[in-house]
Amino acid sequence: MSQQRIGFIQSRGLGDLIIALPIAREYTRRGYEVYWPVCEPFYQQMTRVAPWVRWMSVPVDEAGRFFYENPARQLQAIGVVEELWLYQYLSSHPENTNKSHFAQFKFDQYKYAQAGVAFGRKWELAECLERDLAREEALYNQLVQKPRYMVYQGVASDMTYDVDLSSIEPEVQCIEIRAVTDSIFDWIKILEGAETMILVDSVFANLVDQLGLTEGKDCYYMRKWNRRVDGNPVLLGDWTFVDIADPEGVQVRSLVDMGLQDMNARAQAEAQNPPTPTAGPQQAGKVNGGSGQTYTPYGQTNNTINAAQRLQQQLGLRK
User: Fold this and answer.
1) pLDDT in tens, 111-123
2) CA of residue 40 relative to chain centroid, distance
3) Interatomic CA distance for residues 207 and 201, integer angstroms
């Protein structure tokens, strides 16, 4: 009997991929072969760490077709017809959003609700990863120079914070997360041994939380000011949450507020001007609005927000 095949629709970003990876593991337990098109910059590292998934590389294009159109074409080309839509909301395809789930869940909870997988499995990430201990050891030996060290992150995919490390003891080495390897998973050994971690809302914070690495450490989490509650993940680890102020004069709306307003406006427009049926093949849907960029976990932006200055006072780092 041939295996059932399913295609996951979530081509980016890295944080979303590791959040949803336990969903793929659960589907393999249910007898599925999981095909997962992801943006080309993420393909190699995901293939190395989770080779049990049928990863597919999607080129990044400026029009943003890497979100859905091109992954869907790749799946169709190999005969995978069943799709699991994991995006909480995609403006080019609002019809694929479950309005009820959208209104009540954070974005990571939404993925699990859509998949019909218990949300608690999100923290079974360790069972999903085939760690490359040699690569982890090599990065550890390259960066760690003292018995005691801490790890901090000032730059995430789309935001930069200034981190004040003046209160860190001289005998504690400060290691910044930066682009010294092509895989975020090479950092796991270093993260395991750090006595303090200061992390931005990013794939690294998700990795630490899902692997349960906060126990016995001083861990500080800095949200991105441009996200509201539904755009932040659920974290179960022992974190201190840093107060981050919005830039003066900037209004940030909830993704749910924006999405529901957009969906309601579309519904009203369609009710007033119903589409006219046409013969022949349908045109491809409008691609996702906005930028066609994708990001590395180390950032591709020069916009700096100094909302986390003077962490000595804000965080109360131990002496």
Assistant:
1) 999 999 999 999 9
2) 15
3) 11
Which tens digit of pLDDT belongs to each residue from 20-51? 999 999 999 999 999 999 999 999 999 999 99
Whose tokens are 């849907």? That residue is: 285
Q: Domain spans of the chain?
A: 4-128, 133-249+296-315
Contact 128, 206 (CB under 8 A): no
CATH dotted code for 4-128: 3.40.50
- Alpha-carbon separation of residue 94 from 88, 91, 261 (angstroms): 9, 5, 11
Q: What's the confidence (pLDDT) of residue 155? A: 84
Phi-psi map region of 151: left, alpha, beta (phi>0 left; psi -120 to 50 alpha):
beta
314, two tokens: 């804000």
Percent of the chain with pLDDT over 90: 60
Transcribe 91-153 into DSSP letters. Answer: TT-GGGS-HHHHHHS-HHHHHHHHHT--GGGGG-GGGG----HHHHHHHHHHH--SSSEEEE-
Report the SS3 class of residue 38: strand
**Chain mean position to CA 101:** 19
Phi (first) and psi of residue 126, to 5 degrees: -55, -35
**Confidence band (pLDDT; 50, 70, 90) for 57?**
very high
Burial class (CB within 10 angstroms; exposed 0-12, middle 13-18, buried 19+) of 296: middle
At residue 151, the pLDDT reads: 97
- Confidence label for 91 from pLDDT (cuts 50, 70 and 90): confident
| Token reading at 63 | 């029009």
Rounded Cα gap, residues 244 and 201, in angstroms: 12
